[in-house]
């Protein structure tokens, strides 16, 4: 996100923002996708589903870096959203089962200076313990296991540099693993705030959502 932009020109009815350097931010890559609506016919980045008497275990494929090339999605453009669904059932909200989904990312040495988060609506796009991956030094992987209801989920891996690191970018970034490409189909939200003279709060006066497809 880009915040606190200052206009380069202000007139009676218009504010112009032409400082390109401040307006540019990461384009990212297309969202990754998993679909386990059907425990026998799954799709996306899923390796296998192991059916146990007490639970279903969904194992994702070990995540591969995509920072060198733009990869168009074969599963539409969900932009981090998810949908609860169970194939061949009329009411998935009630009939869909919870499954334990295991996310895995190789722990290459170049990633040791980061905390890695899974971002998407499944975690409300929050960077906290619920979305943070754990480093498993014995298996040399970052991993995260979470119970999710059957359906389709889109997500990305976000890298947050450790505090005090001088050799890494200062802000969270998709670039180390997902890359950043102009072709990426994104959804953008513009929020315009105004602080009236003497007011003690910022008032939301404009809101616009658009995409670049």
Describe the structure.
This protein is mostly beta strands. It has one domain. It contains two helices and 14 strands. The strands form four sheets. Strands 3, 4, 7, 9 and 12 form a five-stranded antiparallel β-sheet that branches. The protein has a five-stranded mixed β-sheet with strand order 5-6-8-11-10, with no helix packed on it. It has a two-stranded antiparallel ribbon with strand order 1-2. Strand 1 (9-10) and strand 2 form a beta hairpin. The longest helix has 4 residues, at 20-23. The chain is globular, with a radius of gyration of 20 Å. It starts with 8 loop residues before the first strand and ends with a strand. The mean pLDDT is 89.
Q: How many DSSP helices?
A: 2
Silhouette: globular
| SS class | mainly beta
- Overall pLDDT level: 89
What is the helical fraction, as a range of percent?
under 10%
Major β-sheet annotation: 5 strands, antiparallel
DSSP strand tally:
14
> What is the H/E string?
EEHEEEEEHEEEEEEE
Beta content comes to 35-45%
Q: What are the segments in which pLDDT stays under 50 over at least 5 consecutive residues? A: none
How many structural domains can be distinguished in the coordinates? 1
Kindly, what is the distance between the CA atoms of the first and last residues, rounded to a whole number of angstroms?
A: 19 Å
The rounded Rg comes to: 20 Å
